[in-house]
Specification:
The protein is α/β, with parallel strands linked by helices and 834 residues long. The protein is 41% helix and 21% strand. It has four domains: 14-257, Carbamate kinase, CATH 3.40.1160.10; 331-463, 2-Layer Sandwich (VC0802-like); 469-610 and 817-822, NAD(P)-binding Rossmann-like Domain (Rossmann fold), CATH 3.40.50; 617-801, Dihydrodipicolinate Reductase, domain 2 (2-Layer Sandwich). An eight-stranded mixed β-sheet has the order 3-6-2-1-9-13-14-12, sandwiched between helices. The protein has a seven-stranded mixed β-sheet with strand order 24-23-22-21-25-26-27, sandwiched between helices.
């Protein structure tokens, strides 16, 4: 991070500076369009850049368009002058000249406005003076030789942008200087914009200045004749990756106006989803086939480097964008749909076999088939194709066409994907299906324009199952282990889990995070071998930048501390399945804040297993409310432990002996007082009452503890030695109940009557025929009364504890959450794609 209040440690020489690993940041024209935009860019540089990084800039806003317009006006003036044989000054010439000078004046005003808004008067005066002189020089050259001056004119957009940003940074952030790429970037072949990397690298190294942030002009370079040349429209992205190759940068970030690469053009396909990670070859193919953000040449300089390319939005810098580089198998599963209109299918015998290979080399067609003798090129290439064929003395037919293609890693080799693509186009006339030479795309050639309707329909058919959901499991105890053991079979047999990827295992002090996925069949073994110590800050940092469409955390911990991270999870749009009771039974203020934060960020929070293990009590309450019912009473036996104890307790054996037996079987908590205190039942009743729409706190529920006062605050060892002190109390309660033909059970009750809430958990005497008395040991029972279930209450009964049923309940929540996420589409906010 660059901090304007902290001195930057100097480097002794330029060579040392060049050897320090750096990053390249490129800012597009829309990111630099206004003073407010430039202010955002300055903040991004302050927060994300180091002093030895390289900043590449496009022209501000629509400056390049304005310069092209001025060039066209100059050409019109020159043509009118040449047609005026008498060489007299006509009204037409006067009008054309005035229009040219007015356009230059407007451009001057626009640039001066940015300068004056962003700089102090002294710096502004210096830049305005340079600007005025350059506009005057341009006016003269454009009237004399507009064609010879074209590239010099177009270069001003980047020069002005780089000069202004450098001045702003020097005033407010850190020492900065501007480099005109024409001073070092040498192009060997203007047609293909091929770079002379050796000469360019030497020249660039000589120009680097230590302890200053360099701002480099994008889009422009010089040719072998030392003349200005351009890298094509949108060439600044290409400039950025060239700079990465020259400096051996670790990362290149293209800061633009959309927050990543999408599975289709999001301006046309609203359901397009972000592709968080793309293999280099797939990204290159996307750029070649018309992706609106990636461009064909952008990735070429990175072919022999380990540099990763990032696409992010300068309008939303905290939103995770798209990363392009070398990844594992999960990233290779990404699929996108793209299209190109205004193409020409050229068919000729010269496009067969060997001569066809020459044509491919000459024109770099979108696609081709040398067995059938055709190539597909842009309409702009039609004239050059005709001229090339004329020299071969062969006939040609031209047909206007469009293409639509699916793009993904080796997608052309996947028979199921090819078949699915053809089915998606079964109602659409097509001329040919063919794969690209690199196998990363499968292309359909259409005899008419590819409409937005076609693109949307094909995208829907091809990507409906493509959303990637990351899964992090926290808590690797008894239930956590069982959940992971069940996971491979669940993924294999439940269609909604097909795109779930286990990427994180989190224990109490160690975590294993693997962005490329953790083998679910060996997850626990890998955790034992590879897990590393972590803290909450490290965990949140990774979760903030995860490369998936959605991330789900399964919290199977008993930890109150971990539950306190839910606010942070929801603030990041992360979804939570919680078997952990702490968050759902926390203070009213905290609980409401959690609900609010989750709703604000579209986070889903499910917790069916917080109460009743795998029994569908939470979901049933929700379904009743969603259908318009109103719940008035919730009651039952919510503790599997207390259910077991009182189902078996008959007074023949002392209660302490029964408790010891339950402890040895693992039926109770390690400290049985956790069960006997009633706090767990109290929290469960609170969770269900809140789920039913009532606002109350734990203190609103009267809780009868079954632990006598003298035994509450002693050590566990001492308590276990003194459990016989429980015997007389429980035997007395049992005999009182038996004298009335009753049994004793620990019952939770919540009622809402006449706008009054009564809630308690306590030991009750129940008739032997009561529904709460006739339970299988360890069972839970939940009774609901509502407007619809008054005389005959709704009862849910079954195992309320156990690793299998609890893990199964968590899996049920996982399926539910994935089904909801797979039908959800993120709203794409676009400022306008360059």
């Amino acid at each position: 991070m660059i901090d304007s209040n902290v001195a930057v440690k100097p480097s002794s020489t330029n060579n040392k500076l060049a050897k320090v690993a750096c990053n390249v940041h490129k800012f597009g024209g829309s990111s630099l369009a206004t003073s407010a935009c430039i202010g955002r860019v300055v903040d991004i540089i302050r927060q994300h850049c180091q002093i030895n990084d390289i900043i590449v800039v496009s022209a501000n806003g629509s400056t390049t368009d304005a310069l092209f317009n001025i060039y066209q006006r100059a050409l019109a003036l020159k043509e009118a002058s040449s047609l005026n044989k008498e060489n007299s000054i006509s009204n037409e010439l006067i009008t054309l000249k005035e229009a040219l000078l007015a356009a230059l004046s407007d451009l001057n005003t626009m640039q001066a406005s940015l300068i004056n808004e962003l700089l102090n008067p002294t710096s502004a005066a210096r830049l305005n003076n340079l600007l005025t002189n350059e506009i005057a020089t341009s006016a003269q050259h454009l009237q004399e030789d507009p064609q010879g001056y074209q590239n010099d004119l177009l270069a001003f957009g980047e020069v002005w942008s780089a000069r202004l940003l450098s001045a702003v940074l020097s005033e407010s952030v850190c020492p900065s200087y501007m480099l005109d790429a024409r001073d070092f970037l040498l192009i060997n072949n203007e047609k293909n914009s091929t770079v002379d990397y050796n000469a360019s690298q030497v020249a660039f190294s000589d120009l680097r200045q230590p302890n200053q942030l360099v701002i480099v002009t994008g889009y422009i370079a010089r040719n072998q004749e030392q003349q200005t040349c351009t890298l094509g429209r949108n060439g600044s992205d290409y400039s950025a990756t060239i700079m990465a190759a020259l400096s051996q940068a670790r990362n290149v970030t293209l800061w633009t106006d959309v927050d990543g690469i999408y599975s289709a053009d999001p301006r046309i396909v609203p359901s397009a989803r972000k592709l968080h990670r793309l293999p280099n070859a797939v990204a290159n193919e996307l750029g070649r086939l018309g992706n609106p953000v990636l461009h064909a040449k952008t990735l070429q300089p990175l072919t022999n480097h380990n540099t990763h390319l990032h696409v992010a939005s300068s309008f939303a810098p905290d939103v995770s964008g798209t990363e392009i580089g070398k990844f594992g198998e999960i990233a290779k599963q990404e699929l996108s749909v793209t299209s190109l209109n205004d193409l020409i299918l050229a068919k000729s015998s010269s496009f067969l076999a060997k001569s066809g290979e020459l044509a491919v080399s000459e024109f770099s067609p979108i696609c081709y088939n040398l067995d059938e003798g055709y190539i597909v090129v842009t309409q702009a290439q039609q004239k050059s194709v005709s001229q090339w064929l004329a020299s071969h003395d062969t006939e040609v037919t031209f047909k206007p066409v469009a293409i639509i293609a699916i793009v993904g890693h080796s997608v052309a080799k996947q028979g199921d994907m090819r078949a699915r693509f053809k089915r998606a186009l079964k109602h659409q006339p097509t001329l040919h299906f063919l794969h690209s030479f690199n196998e990363h795309s499968y292309i359909a050639i259409l005899p008419e324009l590819c409409s937005s309707e076609i693109l949307n329909n094909v995208h829907a058919d091809m990507t409906k199952d493509a959303k990637n959901i990351a899964l992090v499991v926290a808590g690797l105890g008894n239930i956590g282990e069982r959940f992971l053991t069940m996971l491979p079979k669940q993924i294999a047999r439940v269609s909604g889990l097909e795109n779930v990827h286990l990427v994180g295992l989190v224990g109490a002090s160690k975590a294993l995070i693997n962005t490329d996925g953790i083998d679910v069949a060996n997850a626990l073994k890998l955790y034992q071998e590879q897990a590393q110590a972590y803290d909450s800050k490290q965990l949140l940092a990774w979760l903030t930048s995860h490369p998936y469409d959605e991330l789900v955390i399964v919290d199977i911990t008993p930890s109150e501390v971990f539950s306190q991270l839910y606010h942070e999870f929801f603030a990041r749009g992360i979804h939570v399945i919680g078997a952990n009771k702490w968050a759902a039974s926390s203070s009213t203020e905290n609980y409401q804040q959690l609900l609010s934060t989750a709703a604000k960020n579209n986070s889903i929070w499910l917790g069916n297993t917080t109460v009743g293990a795998g029994l569908p009590i939470n979901s049933t309450i929700k379904e009743l409310l969603n259908s318009g019912d109103k719940i008035s009473e919730i009651s039952g036996i919510f503790s599997g432990t207390l259910s077991w104890l009182f189902q078996y307790y008959d007074g023949v054996k002392p209660f302490s002996a029964l408790l010891s037996n339950a402890l040895s079987q693992g039926i109770t908590e390690p400290d049985p007082r956790e069960d006997l205190s009633g706090r767990d039942v109290q929290r469960k009743l609170l969770i269900l009452a809140r789920a039913a729409g009532f606002e109350l706190s734990l203190s609103d529920i009267n809780c009868q503890s079954l632990v006598p006062e003298p035994l509450r605050n002693i050590s566990l060892t001492e308590f276990l030695e003194r459990t016989s002190e429980l015997d007389e109390m429980f035997l007395s309660r049992l005999k009182q109940a038996q004298d009335k033909a009753c049994v004793i059970r620990y019952v939770a009750r919540f009622t809402y009557d006449n706008e009054k809430i009564v809630a308690k958990v306590s030991l009750e005497e129940l008739s032997e025929k009561d529904a709460f008395a006739q339970l299988t040991p360890c069972d839970n029972v939940f009774q609901l009364k509502s407007e619809w279930y008054q005389e005959n209450a709704l009862i849910i009964r079954g195992p309320g504890a156990g690793r299998d049923v609890t893990a199964g309940g968590i899996h049920a929540d996982l399926v539910t959450i994935c089904q909801r996420l797979n039908h959800r589409y993120q709203q794409v906010k676009i400022k306008g794609i360059n």
